[in-house]
Amino acid sequence: MQVLVRDNNVDQALRVLKKKLQREGVFREMKTRRAYEKPSEKRAREKGEAVRRARKAARKLAQREGLAPGARAKR
Question: Dihedral, CA atoms, 31, 18, 23, 46, nearest 10 degrees?
Answer without folding.
Answer: 0
